[in-house]
Amino acid sequence: MEGPQGVHVECDGSRLINFCSNDYLGLANHPSVVAACKRGVDSYGVGSGASHLVCGHGKAHHALEEELAEFTGRERALLFSTGYMANLGVISALLDRGDWIFEDRLNHASLVDGGLLSGARLKRYAHGDAAALQNSVSACPGASKLIASDGVFSMDGDLAPLPALAAIARESDGWLLIDDAHGLGVVGEKGRGALEHYAMSQDEVSVLVGTLGKAFGTFGAFVAGSEELIEMLIQTARSYIYTTALPPAIAEATRASLRLVQAETWRRDRLGYLVQRFRSGAHALGCTLLPSETPIQPVLMGDNRRALEASEHLLRRGFLVGAIRPPTVPEGAARLRITFSASHEEAHVDALLDALDSLPFAGMANVDPLCDAPAIE
Questions:
Q1: What digits encode the pLDDT tens for the residues 309-338?
Q2: Is 283 a catalytic site residue?
Q3: I want to staple 287 with a disulfide (CB 3.0 to 4.6 A). Which of 150, 234, 282, 301 is the partner?
Q4: Is 214 one of the catalytic residues?
Q5: Any catalytic annotation for residue 182?
């Protein structure tokens, strides 16, 4: 890749239309975000110099944490350097050996690894199946319990059944952690993610994890929740304590993107329109789509070679679309992971549909994507 992220990208010397980025709102190269980052460098330099608890925590970090807490409707927020580190840190801080963690089978790999790192007993339930989760929780009495799930699943694009998960967590006196990396900024009228979509409070979802490198267009992550949760993480989350703080200029850039996420609601409206345009056209072509209303639109191919050939065909037609294969997705569920940005135009969507129509195959029927495979970014 050369040059900035955007709808048009330079890759290996070719100019391509990008349909595989997580820059859902088109903010990664937004002039206001770029300018804020430059001002941040002028004010703070580049590196933060140390961990947050030594001398790396600056005014920009503190302001961003307060603004993220307000945006998500939580008492406090805590910045982490990456979403992977946030999930490792919070899960290992909340659980110990002898405790239980229950995870959706299509959870992001960082949630799975966080459970393994914690030493807790890990049980995985069928994707989106609250009844299966209830059975697992009921069979494990005593000890501390944590239910962990993606809010929007990164390879399928569907939403977790958060109200049902919250009810099970409440009945079992357990924690509920939702990683809404692919929902924040995108889902909900105000872009507050899956929790806004379901109108769920801090009391119902005690731990919210979000990343800043997707819809926000920058880098880093955060955990949001109660005052007590954040104070506990500051003292015990090893991936927070023992790593260099995010560059303050990135925090300033994220403050600018957060303002855009809230002010420019047309970006979410635009995404919804483009997704529906694509889904209507793809169904007409006979493509096998998953039931997703988010910017993540997987076209199932089933066979690995078929997915690779489709991706290469699209590349020759001028489109950058990733072929996602095991172990990221289950065996037999290889796919094209097509993602949309608010910066795409109708002509881009129509041209992509034409390119898909020119494939010697459009999808695979009877593919079950809901098997055991931790997702990646």
A1: 999 999 999 999 999 999 999 999 999 999
A2: no
A3: 282
A4: yes
A5: yes
